Amino acid sequence: MGSNRVIILVVAAVAAIGLMLIVRGLAGHHAAPATMIAAAPAQPMTNVLVAHRELPTGTRIGAGDVVWQPWPANALNPAFITDGHSAEAVPSGAVAKIARSAETVVASAGPMEAVYGAIVRVPILANEPVVQSKLVRSGQGGFMAVVLHPGMRAVAIPISVSSAAGGFILPGDRVDVVQAKQSEGATAHGYTSQTLLQNVEVLAIDQASEPAKGAQAMVGATATLEVPAADAEVMARAKAQGEVVLALRSYADAGGASGRGSPDAQATGEVHIYRAGVMTNAMVTP
């Protein structure tokens, strides 16, 4: 083998060894930050109650509407609702582990259950922390205005045990509003009756918007009904004319439109008809 060839082989071997050392050095240089990241200081995290989905105004919060979400303890707002546990110090990047542990406390989370049944007063975005100032509960100011659907009005009418299905009408039930009155110029037996409104919701009995737990009946002096804005005058006229009766509807018959139920409820007039000296009454619509 010639001397020139030996020299070339030696130079190639030295170059290969040098290249290997350079590559190893570069690999070690990039590995250092990874070690530093893994050794980053622990960050205290706590669980904050947030909206699981977008909650518009009027939403009644129930199971599944809110969830626990990990939140940095140093960014915690005093208005946020937490699970009551002390902040847990965890390394950066371990948030997923905290989220899984939060799921295990949902069933027994008192602070979470405390917001069930509350009504959303101000819209809450998905993943936004839930605060009490955006919620309203039964008995608090503004509750009824939040519960009302757009275009509806709350009208209160006097009731009794006999005019409210024996007290078995509860908030949330659907009823028909019926009125019977004596016809003008008629004898003592000349009465007419009409269904003023059909399928309207009972918002409250007296000041209670929810029946007591396990209650089968509620006896009160006033029922608050949710009626279309155009029908509020119908209720006002009926109250001036005399007692009205609430007819309880079956849950199976609670669907369909809500509103005026008879011609008289639609600004009708009463006409007296005389035939062979006998007077009868008829309701006509202008």
What would the keywords be for this entry?
286 residues; alpha+beta; 2 domains; six-stranded antiparallel β-sheet; three-stranded antiparallel β-sheet; 13 strands; 22% helix; rod-shaped
- What's the alpha carbon Rg, rounded to whole Å? 36 Å
Mean pLDDT: 76
Stretches where pLDDT is under 50 for at least 5 consecutive residues are 92-109, 263-269
- Beta-strand residue fraction: 25-35%
Q: Helix content range of the residues, please? A: 10-25%
Q: Indicate the overall shape.
A: rod-shaped
Tell me the series of helices and strands, N- to C-terminal: HEEEHHEEHEEEEHEEEE
- Sheet with the most strands, sense and barrel status: 6 strands, antiparallel
Which secondary-structure class do the elements indicate?
Answer: alpha+beta
State the end-to-end CA separation.
125 Å
How would you describe this protein?
The chain is an alpha+beta fold. It has two domains: 43-136, no CATH class; 150-284, no CATH class. The protein has five helices and 13 strands. The chain has helices at residues 3-38, 95-103, 110-113, 143-147, 232-241; strands spanning 43-51, 66-72, 88-90, 119-120, 135-136, 152-158, 174-182, 191-205, 222-228, 244-248, 259-260, 269-275, 278-284. The strands form four sheets. Strands 6, 7, 8, 9, 10 and 11 form a six-stranded antiparallel sheet that branches. The protein has a three-stranded antiparallel sheet with strand order 2-1-3, covered by helices on one side. The chain is rod-shaped and about 140 Å long.
